[in-house]
Input
Amino acid sequence: MSKGSVLLVDDDEDILELFRMTLLEDGYGVETAVSGIEALSKVKENKYDVAVLDVVLPDIQGDKLALEIKRHRDSVNIIFITGYANMVGCINSLPIGVSDILLKPITVEALQQAVKDAINIKPSINSTQS
Output
């Protein structure tokens, strides 16, 4: 049984594969996307517990992608990956709640801990009401 489902979004396919393999070995269900458009398509068709998003993608900025993901699947916890420390303030100001922000270069241990923490976040009271 899977520990949870993760969508990894990064245009660096080598990093994407390393992270995918790491999380698969940890027992997560993992899917990947190399663009924002591909990620949105997957979010519309599948439910994920966590989305790990690179801030800089070729077709859409990660912050805008996160807003679209949350619009379609509010229960997804978002983790951002960025190489730009000056982006942290902008990301934290997003009205969606961000589980974590990882600054590049990222160790697999940091990713593992961030995903574990994001999976363990309890849904808000609004998402549990019918």
About this structure: Residues 13-25 form the longest helix (13 residues). Residues 5-119 form a domain with the Rossmann fold fold (CATH 3.40.50.2300). The radius of gyration is 13 Å.
